[in-house]
Amino acid sequence: MGSIRATAVLMVILFITGVEIAYPYGVSRSIEPVMSAPAIEPLKLEIPGISGEYFPLKKLFKKLREFLSGRESRGEGHALPAEVVNTKPAPWEKHEAKEAEELESSIAELEKALEELDIEMIKAEKVKLLLIDERIRAEFNATEAKLRRLAAEGRVSQEKLKRLEEVRQNYSASMEELLLEIEDVEKAGSREELKQRAAKAKRKLKELRREKKERFLGTELPHRSVYREARQLTLGESLLPGYTYSLVNVSSANLSSLPTPADLNATPEVIITPEIESLAEMLSHDPVAMYEYVRNRFDYQPYYGSLKGSQLTLWEKAGNDFDLASLLIALYRSAGIPARYAYGTVEVPVEWAMNVTGISDPVTAANAFASGGVPATLLISGGRPSSLLIEHVWVEAYLPYGSYRGKIKGEGGYQWVPLDPSFKWYRYHEPAINLTKAMGFNATEFISIIMNQSTINESGYYITSVNQSFIREYMENLTNSTYAYLAERNLTSLTLNELLGYREIIPERLGVLPNSLPYRVIEKKAEFSELPDELRHKIKFEVYQVSSSLLGSLPASSPDFSVTLSMPELAGKRITLSYIPATQDDAAIIEEYGGITNVPAYLVEMTPVLRVEGEAVAIGNPVTIGETQQFVMEFMAPGGERDRVVNDVTVGAYYAVGLDLGNVPARLIENRHAELKTWSNLLNVSGYTDDRVLGEMLYTTALAYFFELDVCNDILSRTSGVFLLRQPSEAIVALDMAVGYLFWSPYDLDIAGLNIDVDRNVYTALSKSGNSEEARSFILTSGNLGSALEHGIFEQLYSVPSVSAVKILQVASEQGVPIYSINASNVDAILPRLQVSQEVRDAVRNAVVQGREVIIPERNIQYYNWTGIGYIVLDPETGAGAYMISGGLAGGSWAIIMKCFKEIYEFVASVIREEIYTLQSIVTYLIEIIKSKTSILEKGAAGLLFILILRNARALALVLKPAIEIGIAALTWDLLLVLVLFMTIITVLYIFYSLIIKKPAFTSCRALSRQ
Hints:
The chain is α+β, with helices and mostly antiparallel strands. The protein has 32 helices and 35 strands. The strands form eight sheets. Strands 3, 18, 19, 20, 21, 24, 25, 26, 27, 28 and 35 form an eleven-stranded mixed β-sheet that branches. Helix 20 runs antiparallel to helix 21 and helix 21 (about 690-720) packs antiparallel against helix 22 (about 770-800).
């Protein structure tokens, strides 16, 4: 096999095997994801004739449909039997707005029949369309009767009747056009005439159908590492400091000003919470103790600008100079000590930059600061890097500075004292053992066996049927042998830090405040009681109306609303986008029909509302339920850098935005879980869509995703020798809606389950040794892990089978579906083979045109009752990627669509409240299912979900508690070993791929690849 094809095949193998490595099941030694403590065992329900990790509800759904309809499913390509044509719905079958779904399905079948020129099937679909049309018109009449009653009662206005008539006329015109086109096809006299008329009918179908478009990726991929050029330092006239200092004499202080009330106030950064007040009190309000607490316990991170604020910095135990200054100022102000920011250009030794980043090369260390956005200039002396000029923030506190240098309050004269809690040095500790040697992992052997056991098509650039059982067994054996190796040497008591190596802050405990700043101030630019807005990270939130057409979704030129908030204001807070009834008419119709999933969607308008911690900060204009809007988040960094993230959202769905501003701290999730439990206790089932409950559940899910990913990335970066700095990132978790359309008009909504869209997952990743391939391998591996978690987080928290891009690759491999690696050299040959929508093919070509590679199965994959495609877009140079699933999501989704949401929600809420073990609660839940206004099919599905959750209720009730409370340090040895093991294996595989197989001169590996 040629080197290009070998590389493509190996890349596919690594992503498929990475699924198992990142999210393993069933391995003997406690291989659970980080959050699942206590362990959630894989579900093993034994049903006659059916068994597996999850009960395959799709099979049950099919059987139930056949039973309820009283007939077996019709085979393709046959005319409808007369008895079916004359069949009327059974009297007990309540209308549940299935007409739109059936209309869309029939049109899709008609399109297929036109493509195949199957005249009998075309006639059969025409009969189906006539039956569906009869039912839709009956529904219009029933809706009209109901609206007239509501209008007579004074509950709705005549405007709703006008809207009904408008939609009815549009529908009638579209259906008439469609039927005329079909009749025209039926009249074709020859094969050639049939072909021409069928082509004309297909064009008409395209005009009439409304399809969701795939996302076209822009210049930046969602998962990536950023590398920035250093911003130019600006030197000007220096301010007279509020102090003068020298290494010899600090008594010649020259105050620039006296304290003002603003030097004691709270600000968006200086958040004086009860927790900060308690900490200040614990430290006896001692200025020295508070300074040394922040200086000696909190990590320094080289990014620029105010990002986290004092409270999130306290929880994360890390921050840059801005955020650590904010925390120290918050402690001082809570103790009644005036404090403020000082900002200027300082000169630091290049050795310090290397020390705080752990990077051995001084140029790369300086680049770490520049990539974090810090204005920096590397100075050269004697031909070698000597120091670094950076723009920097420190603290000035108004303190007694006599003989005791701030130790005793009130002793000596008061003056402004310069303090920098961010400047510190680290001591590094090497790993206790060589883990790679302990593992005994042979990458060549491992890859050789996988390739020999897989189906590889050399000429077709594809691979499939990768042996997952072998991978699981191999990993289990490797885990056990590594554990035995360590046990024999009495090393099983090692902590994670000892196993991986770690660093610690070299503490400074002078007992008094330092007599100077630890670096030379080149220029002091400003002093602030509150940081100016231009030094803050911000997000602009916008919602746009969208008009849908054959050209795709076209957003309006101006937004419905636009609001800009600073990151410190948002740090650690729940952000949600939801919809409320636009008018009293809309509220009355929703009430009459019993919820938005029951209303004729075209009748009701809702208004988008952006909330922060439940408080509305922006409200948009009315729009019809089921329509699409654009939700835009623009990330704005100090210095002018902007990144625009665009999402399509469905009117009526519920969205929560989770931010990761460095790493999601365990304390934050613990607090959010307590919040969720409190409101679940206070609200009954009628409040299930309350932002404090539904919004909190979605938000906590986003936090849990980032929490796990941050833990994995920390381990991976340490084993890979990579300096890692997370840039502000976000994920949206949604309770999504599936919309049924009558041609172009929204007709009905169904709950489509939960999904996650991680469309900004950004880092700065630099090799500590200067080997750029290590950083690239880290980004590739981290992307694979992140994609696995996009389905894994739902399976852990909700015990619901879910999909992600890498999950789809795995399922495709298991089903024997070819998986292609597409690039510029083979796109024209492979693209025609893909049995996916034209939108996906266009997205693939668009990616390849931009120099990217795409890994994609040959056709759509069905997993439970989710059907679609999953694919990966990669930048081969940097490792950046987009891990996409159908619908334009860079994330994951439930693979089971449930519609008894209200009852399911109440049951999950009872699990959170730990009430599930009472017989009364179980009986109550079952009664609610039976009483719900849903079909027998949906009641049966909800009952099955009840069984699934009940089997794991205790684990679900605790899933957001123990792993968070104990933190990483207290995780079991087995889990730590396995995490390290799997991260190391992936890293070794990618390095092996990049440094060995990719080299043409390495003949033995090329020979191995040809086998």
